[in-house]
Design brief:
mainly beta, 8-stranded mixed sheet, 4-stranded antiparallel sheet, 41% strand, disordered N terminus
Length: 330
């Protein structure tokens, strides 16, 4: 399954305060799925450009998109570094870490330190506010870092923004309940995120970068047990018109595409295991992690077209943690 949800699900009694009447409820039939070959063909390495940041053995690493030039950036010792996100100029990476100083995680959301590292010098700096955070995401315009942080009483997680140096922290004021997994639109005007209200199951929402117009795009499948799973947003299409996401529970998560306005949700892959979209490349390919079981130690990596065709294996990415961040070539 997708490894973004690494913390306990928090069932809250609050009712979701804002929703969009056009939100998609998906109960796809078998006609939505594509047949999976017994061994998808291996993609040509030379076709994949850019750089990748990922966690491996509790440290942050970088490599070229073809798997060459692997280099360890952080030295966490007994700590754990994960969830890397590139600055758009490729000079820095923001990441979550168990290191540093941050307040107690009273809401049990998984809040830890947030550091920025210079890729060339490996010089690190802790930037997160006192309560810590998780899922940092650098905006494509380079001006802002979004992250999940604690707020309210009882304590819950909201989507917060800050400058890349950790100043000017502000809460987007999203509906009551859990809010995580923020991903930026290509023009930095919107964020997609996952939210849950009283039932504990996650749905995909979007919101403007100033906190206005929160909209629910998906509804978790109604047969899911309380707090067992739901929908997890992945990257936007390069033109900002569509979103990828995974849907389901446990090791039964399928790969979906939806228009950014919440219309035309469709499953593009149905494969036993769990799928986690991580990158939507300029070439059109969606790169995703596939977890064959919840007991799997590492994900297998693949790419697929948004119409569900041309599934290809990316074996040179094996061992890279999920999520990874893919910086396209300039």
């Amino acid at each position: 399954m997708g490894r973004r949800f690494t913390i306990p699900f928090i069932a809250l009694a609050a009712v979701v305060a804002a929703s969009c009447s056009g939100a998609a409820t998906h109960s796809p039939s078998a006609a939505d799925s594509r047949a999976i070959p017994s061994a998808p063909p291996v993609a040509p390495r030379a076709a994949y450009k850019g750089r990748i940041a990922f966690d491996y053995r509790r440290a942050i690493w970088v490599m070229k998109a073809d798997g060459s030039g692997r280099r360890q950036l952080t030295r966490p010792g007994a700590g754990n570094d994960l969830d890397p996100s590139w600055s758009p100029d490729g000079k820095r990476i923001v990441f979550r870490t168990s290191r540093g100083r941050y307040g107690p995680d009273s809401g049990r959301i998984g809040a830890e330190g947030i550091f920025v590292i210079d890729v060339a010098t490996r010089k690190e700096r802790q930037i997160q506010p006192p309560q810590g955070g998780l899922f940092p995401a650098w905006s494509p315009d380079g001006k802002t870092i979004a992250f999940s942080g604690t707020r309210g009483s009882p304590v819950e997680d909201g989507i917060l923004l800050m400058n890349p140096d950790g100043t000017n922290v502000r809460d987007l004021g999203l509906p009551t309940g859990g809010n995580e997994c923020a991903t930026w639109s290509p023009d930095s005007s919107k964020l997609a995120f996952c939210h849950h209200g009283g039932d504990g199951n996650w749905a995909v929402w979007t919101v403007n970068a100033d906190g206005s117009d929160p909209r629910q795009l998906t509804h978790p499948i109604l047969t899911l047990p309380r707090g067992s799973g739901g929908d997890d947003p992945g990257p936007w299409s390069p033109d900002g018109k569509r979103l990828s996401y995974s849907s389901g529970a446990g090791d039964a998560r399928d790969l979906f595409i939806i228009n950014a306005d919440g219309t035309h949700a469709r499953r593009i892959l149905r494969w036993r295991g769990g799928d986690s979209p991580n990158a939507w490349l300029p070439s059109g390919q969606i790169v995703f992690a596939h977890w064959p079981s919840e007991q799997a130690r590492h994900a297998d990596w693949y790419s697929i077209r948004p119409d569900g065709t041309r599934l290809q294996a990316l074996p040179w990415l094996r061992g890279a943690g999920d999520p990874l961040d893919w910086l396209p070539a300039r």
